[in-house]
Amino acid sequence: EHATDAIILHDENGIILDVNPQACRALGYRREEMIGKTPELFDASATPAVVREIIRRVRESEVVSFESTHRAKDGTLFPVEVRIRTFQLLGRTVNQTSTRDLTERRRFESQVRDAQKLEAIGLLAGGVAHDFNNLLTIINGYAELLVSARAPSDPDNELLREIRDAGERASALTRQLLAFS
User: Fold this and answer.
1) Residues of 103-115 as b/e, b for ≥16 C-beta within 10 angstroms?
2) What gap in Å lies between CA 31 and CA 162, rounded to an integer?
3) 32-46 pLDDT, tens per residue?
4) What are the start-end ranges of the E strands in 20-175?
5) In this predicted structure, what is the pLDDT of residue 84?
6) Is the pLDDT of residue 181 over 80?
7) How far apart are CA 157 and CA 163, in angstroms?
8) Could you tell me if 82 and 57 are in contact, meaning their C-beta atoms sit under 8 angstroms apart?
9) Dihedrals φ, ψ of 173, to 5°?
10) Are residues 87 and 94 in contact, defined by beta-carbon separation less than 8 angstroms?
11) CA-to-CA distance for 154 and 151, rounded, in angstroms?
């Protein structure tokens, strides 16, 4: 009754015998609406062939685990992890299905993937900025040497100062790229 997973009890043919309150909350059905039905009521991928295969596997005492998509009464679809096992209850074979909503886990996994992508972009930007800064250091150094080696009246000084100033602006841009990374 207090489980955070939806728990549904089925008979050997998949007919729902009972559900816990979490199953009702997750799917939007009242308990009475679910009892006597089959998983096709709420499992978007539960075709008769799929249900038969699951029943066959469960009858072989196998714990069956899979991911699926459930459809709430209002039509909302959400990803779930399903585990089905069989046991004896008062001399009767019963299948217990425990279902966990994966919506939050998938949202978290998506956020982690996005963070990993941003980290990769940052590393790439940092590497490019570092390499570019090394090249700019050489360009700026030689431009400064050329400016200081010439007489102040040399007509090429203006061109060399333009090269040096552009190199300094590029260095500032590289620092911004490094800050981004």
Assistant:
1) eeeeeeeeeeeee
2) 80
3) 999 999 888 899 888
4) 64-71, 77-89, 92-101
5) 94
6) no
7) 10
8) no
9) -65, -40
10) yes
11) 5
Residue whose entry in the numeric block shows the structure tokens 């992508």 = 117
> Identity (one letter) of the amino acid at 160?
L
Asked if residues 94 and 10 have their Cβ atoms less than 8 Å apart, the reply is yes
**Higher-confidence residue: 166 or 52?**
166
Specify whether the CB–CB gap between 5 and 23 falls below 8 A: no
Which three-class secondary structure string do you get for 7-45?
EEEECCCCCEEEECHHHHHHHCCCHHHHCCCCHHHCECC
Average pLDDT over residues 92-106: 93
pLDDT of 97 reads 94
Sorting pLDDT into bands at 50, 70 and 90, what band is 89? confident
